[in-house]
């Protein structure tokens, strides 16, 4: 579908998804809660990668985005193959040392094999529901036996995603923009519960070796509570994470998956 055939709202969302600067700014958002949500995910992903990275390791990153993790990997002296369906994202990381870019759809066989580590952070929610299993299957084929995949994605019924769904209604979107100054649909078309994602992980053949839930958001408190509100939400999030029936309200689910040796 071309941008010309999209509605003005949909076209704006596509442009944001393709805007490297927009994505990079998420980690320096002036709102302490929003900034904290993105930085918490970044810290979790990088800490898990650190456990497995070795000089010369082969890493497959699917979904480059603003290149934040590609830059992190390049600085570690590893060999990175960065895959994306957006050529602008690939251009943004093409000159990084040790990085090879590949334009293509990672839900199809791209012939990539024998990687030590795979990375997919905040990507699977943008993959059509009928194709996310195919993407996990491709990661399984691409990673060597004993290798790992670091994966993160939002939870289907997290408070942030439930709030974002309301923005699909024009009157609510207009009101949110009037109150907050800016508001947009996140463009997430494949939000999964933990149970649903774990089913696909198991079907692909991976073993879960690490799992975390984090990131709590409440409208109003997040937008107007400042640093105190951000701190309170972080504390509440830690409590919710220990209560199975409430942990689904947290935004991010993160996994380290291993391909059996």
Task: Give an account of the 3D structure.
This protein is of the alpha/beta class. It has one domain (3-156, 188-215, 252-258): Rossmann fold (3-Layer(aba) Sandwich), CATH 3.40.50.150. 43% of the residues lie in helices and 19% in strands. The protein contains eleven helices and seven strands. A seven-stranded mixed β-sheet has the order 3-2-1-4-5-7-6, with helices on both faces. Helix 6 (132-142) links the parallel strand 4 and strand 5. Helix 6 (132-142) crosses helix 9.
**How are the strands ordered across the major sheet?**
3-2-1-4-5-7-6
CATH class: Alpha Beta
Termini distance?
Answer: 41 Å
Overall geometry: globular
What are the salient characteristics of this protein?
261 residues; alpha/beta; Rossmann fold; 43% helix; globular
In short:
The chain is built from 11 helices and 7 strands.
Topology overview:
Layout lengths: L7 H11 L1 H6 L6 H21 L5 E5 L5 H7 L4 E6 L2 H7 L5 E5 L11 E7 L10 H11 E12 L4 H8 L3 H11 L13 H11 L2 E8 L6 H4 L1 H15 L11 E7 L3
Parallel strand pairs: 1-2, 1-4, 2-3, 4-5
Antiparallel strand pairs: 5-7, 6-7
């Amino acid at each position: 579908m071309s941008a010309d055939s999209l509605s003005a709202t949909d076209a704006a969302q596509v442009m944001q998804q393709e805007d490297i600067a927009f994505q990079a700014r998420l980690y320096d958002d002036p709102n302490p809660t929003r900034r904290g949500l993105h930085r918490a995910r970044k810290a979790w992903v990088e800490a898990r990668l650190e456990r497995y990275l070795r000089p010369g390791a082969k890493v497959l990153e699917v979904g480059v985005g603003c290149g934040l993790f590609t830059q992190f990997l390049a600085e570690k002296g590893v060999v990175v193959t960065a895959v994306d369906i957006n050529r602008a994202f690939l251009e943004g990381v093409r000159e990084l040392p040790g990085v090879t870019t590949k334009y293509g759809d990672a839900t199809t066989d791209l012939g990539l094999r024998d990687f030590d580590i795979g990375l997919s952070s905040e990507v699977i929610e943008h993959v059509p529901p009928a194709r996310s299993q195919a993407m996990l299957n491709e990661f399984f084929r691409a990673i060597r036996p004993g290798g790992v995949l670091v994966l993160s994605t939002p939870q289907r019924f997290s408070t942030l995603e439930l709030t974002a769904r309301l923005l699909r209604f024009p009157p609510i979107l207009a009101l949110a923009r009037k109150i907050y100054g800016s508001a947009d649909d996140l463009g997430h078309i494949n939000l999964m519960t933990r149970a649903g994602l774990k089913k696909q992980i198991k079907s692909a053949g991976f073993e879960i070796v690490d799992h975390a839930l984090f990131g709590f958001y409440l409208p109003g408190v997040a937008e107007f509570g400042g640093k105190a509100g951000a701190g309170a939400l972080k504390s509440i999030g830690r409590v919710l994470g220990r209560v199975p029936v409430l942990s689904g309200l947290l935004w991010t689910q993160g996994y380290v998956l291993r391909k059996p040796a």
